[in-house]
């Protein structure tokens, strides 16, 4: 019985001491993580990512939506079936060109952002 009480007491003491050390270590890790997150190089990259997401990356979905609207309007317009088909074909061709241009711009912007990140990350 005495041995079991010693084990339980030992576990309790170990738990209390470990918990205190664990909390202190947690606070140290948290403080270091906050310092890294707040560092100027990290925040510069955060700003770049936000700017990219707000500009070039969002241009493509917007262009796709606008293109779909153009084609739908052309299909729903007045006129004979042949006239509407011709308007839809023209709107589709125009939309395809716009989508292709926007995709190229978005791809270039993404590549530039990745190149900027790798250049700054390497210290160059």
TrEMBL record:
Taxonomic placement: Bacteria, Bacillati, Actinomycetota, Actinomycetes, Micrococcales
Entry superkingdom: Bacteria
Region of interest (Disordered), residue spans: 104-124
Protein name stated in the entry: Protoporphyrinogen oxidase
Organism encoding this protein: Microbacterium aurantiacum
